[in-house]
Structures are given as C-alpha cells and as structure tokens.
Amino acid sequence: MFFFGTNPILELLIFAAFGLSIWAQFKVKGNFRKWSQVAASSGITGAQVARHLLNQNGLYDVDVEPVRGTLSDHYDPVNRAVRLSEDVYYGNSIASIAIASHEVGHAIQHKEAYSMLVLRHKFFPILNFTSGIAPILLIAGFLFRAANLIGLGIIFFATVVIFHLITLPVEFNASSRARNLIVAEGFIRNEEEKGIGKVLNAAALTYVAAALIAALELLRYILIFVGMNSDD
After folding, report:
1. DSSP structure class, residue 93
2. Residues 199 and 31: beta-carbon distance below 8 Å
3. In degrees rounded to 5, what are phi and psi of residue 75?
4. Catalytic residue at 171?
5. Tens digits of per-residue pLDDT, 168-208?
6. By its UniProt entry, which InterPro entries does this protein fall under (predicted)?
C-alpha cells in the first residue's frame, strides 16, 4: 500500500526492501532447484529424515505427510503433522534433507514450548483481525484526512510488524536446530553442509525482507500521520 509525499529516502528504502524480497524469492527457488538435483550421500529421503528426527525427539505422535505444491512444506501445530511437498517428501537430495529437518525443528519448538513460537501462536487471532482491517482504516483515513482512523490503522498495522519480528527468531532457531540435528545424526557429510546452508539461508532471507518491508511501511504511515497533524 503506497502513499507518497513522505521522506524520499524512506521511499527509496522501501523500494530497495521490495527488491530484496523479490531477489530472496528467486534465491529460494534457485537454491531449491539447484540442491534438489544433488543427491545426499546418505541416500535418505526427506520423509525418512523427518520421521527419524521426530522419533529421536520423542515425537512419535507427529505424522509426516506429503502435500501438493512446490515449497509448500510446513509444520501444522493443530493437527500435529509435518507436511512436506512431494519433491521433499520423496526426494533424497540436499534440499530435501534441509527443508524436512527445518520443519521438524518447528515441531521440536512446539514440544519444548519455545517462547517465541508460543508468542507467535498467541498472536494469530490478533493478526487475523488487525491485518484485514488495518488497510481499510488507513485508506479511509488518508482519503478523508481522518487522523483518528489513521492512528487506529497504524496501531493495527503495528501488530503485523510485531508478528513479522516475532517470526524471525522462530525461523532462525528452527534452521539452527535443523543443522545441528542432521549433522549429529550423520545424514550429511562436511562438504554437504554448504548446500544445507544455502537452502536454509535463502529461506531465512525471505522472512528478513518481509519484516523489513513491514517495518518501513509502518514508519511511512507514522510520518504521514505526524505530517498531517502538523499541517492542521
């Protein structure tokens, strides 16, 4: 959502952040495509990695299921399932191992009640409400120059920014757990760690870009709001 007339440096930063986001998406897809073609020396599939790591951590009740789509992998905390895209589930590549272990990292976070994951789950109901209404309030406020609507919209949009910021440590922690787990279990060799890092780091960059965009947009709205009040 763009409203011009604010600081040109800020507008440039937002434009750069969007560029970073697009580049990050290309990196994710590119690294996944590249390392999906490199078979792991262990020959183990993503599904086998996930099942083994879950069992090793006492998570026998968490299912490992294939799901359609590319890069549609996720952990479902409600139904207690690690869902892996078919390429990851059936594949025995470096990318498959990296992604499968990352999702298991989220399952372990859930088991241990990792503080940032718990906080993110608590934020979901709030986010579902505020993320939908914030744009409406902001647009209406700017159109009608209604400072109270803009102020409320900014408060609601701030929860979106907070959610993005909470997500960062959750994702980085899951990736860190993934690396430690697969190295400890001997699923990869030392020379294969580079590929694991490439896949996980590219994915993490998308979350960084999303958080940066949200934070800069919030700053833009605040500056516009302050400027409008100053003019009045």
Report:
1. B
2. yes
3. -105, 130
4. no
5. 999 999 999 999 999 999 999 989 999 999 999 999 999 99
6. Zn_peptidase_2
